[in-house]
Amino acid sequence: MKMTTESTRTSRIWIATAVACAALSLAACGDKSNGTTAGEKVDAAIAKTEQAGAEAKEKVDQMASEAKAKIDASTASGEATARQGATQAKGAIDDAALTASVSAGLAKDPDLSAIKINVDTKGGVVTLNGPAPSATAKARAEDIARSVQGVSSVDNRLEVKAM
């Protein structure tokens, strides 16, 4: 019988230990040393995490919206710049073509030296610089420049000098 009593005693010790552990665990969950239980602390932590997640999502959404607006504005600005650049390039090509046409017309005139007359064109306005052998030749150079299609006006700065 001594064996059975010792076994019973060991079992009782284990049961008492298990009950004490369970009581301590339950006491810890209900510990209100700082005014809240462990369960309430877990619930508060979960609520704070959910709130932080919601705030982070809102901030990311706002930043994405701002980035999209900046990209849209940049794209519109880039398109406008490209159109302006194309217009300027077309204008430069048109001006170069007008300069070439005026120079070719001056070269056909036997009294005018197309090599000595400088022809510049900007925005369809042709400027003539250099020498002209006479007032008549100066006027003829201006007429030749005006006759080129696309020339809007002529600034005749030719100086009458005997060649």
TrEMBL record:
Superkingdom field: Bacteria
Domain BON: from-to ranges: 94-162
Signal sequence extent: 1-27
Residue spans of biased composition, Basic and acidic residues class: 55-71
Pfam families membership: BON (PF04972)
Region (Disordered) residue spans: 54-90
Keywords, comma-separated and alphabetical: Signal
Name this protein carries in UniProt: Osmotically-inducible protein OsmY
Organism: Variovorax ginsengisoli
